[in-house]
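Lab meeting, action items carried over

1. Structure of the two-component assembly. Owner: GW. Status: complete.
Input record:
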Amino acid sequence: MKTLVIGVGNLLRCDDGAGVHVVNRLKKLAPQIDAVDVAMGGVEILEAMKGYGRVIIVDSIRTGAEPGTIYNVNIADGEEPPRISSSHGVDLVTTLELGRRLMPEEMPPEQVLIGIEAEDTVIFSVTCTPRVEAAVDRVVDEIIMLVGQIND
Amino acid sequence: MKIVTIDPITRLEGHGKIEIFLNEDGNVENAYLQIPELRGFERFCEGRKAEDMPIITPRICGVCPVAHHLASTKTLDAAYGVEPTETASKLRELMNCGYFIYDHTLHFYFLAAPDFVVGPDAPPSERNIFGVLKKVGLDVGREVIKHRAYGQRITETFGGKATHPTCGVPGGISKGLNEEERQSIEDMARSSVEFAKFSLGFFNDVVLSNQDYVDLILSDSYQLKTYNMGLVDDNNHVNFYGGDIRVTDQQGKEYVKFVEQDYLDHVCEHVEPWTYSKFTYLKDVGWDGFTDGPRSGVFRVGPLGRLNAADGMATPQAAEEYKRMYKTLGGRPIQSTLAFHWARLVELLYAAERAVELATDPGITGTDLRNPVGEPGEGVGVVEAARGTLIHHYKLDQEGIIKKVNLVVATTMNYADICMSIRDAAKGLIKNNNVNEGLLNMVEMAFRAYDPCFGCSTHTLPGKAPLKVNIYDDKKRLVETVQRG
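Predicted assembly:
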């Protein structure tokens, strides 16, 4: 199954960039996996997702849990994601719903959301806080294992 | 005194908080928008190589990356004392047109249309893009998504993603256009012209044909008599990429026109203790608090500010739409905040028409892409972002290392206007403690019109994002919380 990994976030704002760090690391460690950084998310991700069998979206989130906590939600299975409301006009859930309504035949049947609980998203820094950094590594490993298995 | 807090603001680029202060009678005393801090960015940049700035600054804000990229590149042109080649200037302008196409499209259909198409009093669960699609049909939705993607593809043709442009270099651009790319851009731009015309027709049918909406646009609650600012070409027509900065007064007459490097002679910043963001005003007029009129140096930027600051549009169909807008709403300048939406669509048409002009310019596929740079120094660069005039200013040392950075962004320039528009809308719509959801949304409409962008803030949000209204008594004790979302 052809898989696309999408990283969402602002690389300059510390843990906000966790999803982008995952994508950048995948590009180095597993260049065979299609991975793309769409920065602020929004409807751009619909264009990127077209034609794939599965999409894995990695984003930083804030739920009040321990920083570095990883959420793994299979949206296509009807699982309710933690409510992620993007700050940029169109949130992720709305975007994916829009894709289903407007271009259902082009959207990946499998849609997975990986959320990484952030600690600091205010300071300007191109590195994450230690617990989020560790979570980024774990997510990268998980994605490589998952995509590798499916491709085998 | 009672305090009404709307937090966070729904359907806004970034997050902020509105606070409405009521007096003892339950009427509006004052209103302010709190916006998050952009703290430490200057320090983050200092010591970096100047040529990295066009790559770094688009990442401050994923909402207007192209505008930051181009302002930064123009700043480096000035700092290295080099003029870009003619081809490079045209390509950069074409890129900005693509950005305006995708940004204005998103704002109108996703952020503005729900209020007008579904209705300002409709429940929040319907007043969103799905409510719009229900009324206009899925085919229109597909056209919206398609043309937003076209705008992005136009900007991406020059290399680098629209969200992370990399092509601008001091003195030019790193990648030119081949004939195949040019043809593709021309096709997308021509399609965007038709889409913009459709959107204006749609606005006409839904908004202008509804007398209630026209009355709302022209109502006193949404009027603000400020100065206006925007970039203009030699004919005083709107330009998104270059020209001089022109300011017009409350009668629409030219107040001042200046070149970008003189901005500090004309634009000042005022500080208030309750917010990290500054308020800009015209230096010669002065700061007169949160007031409008000729004695207050507050000015507006963005679609309506630009159209008011100019004498017309440089492309034929947009020029006609410009005239129609001013004729319909009573001549230039238009003071109604809600007219920003109409102005945005006139600009969408201009951006598309201008993109066709540039894509069919015989010189656009030229290979003279870059001029040699001079010695590093100091520079100012200005472009129009979708939200308004954007100023970058850097000082470099002899090695081309950043010593000082100053950015003046559109939302800062509109900040005082936004606070006043919220206050005035609230005054007309919240009376004697009567605060219901429809009324609060009208207040939000007042500042959504500006398309304020706090994307220079962050992407992560709290897990839940309800709309929350806190009402305090005159001793600032919380007496009531109203929540939606």
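2. GW to write a short summary for the group page. Key points so far: Residues 2-34+431-484 of chain B form one domain. Confidence is low (pLDDT under 50) at residues 4-15, 456-469 of chain B.
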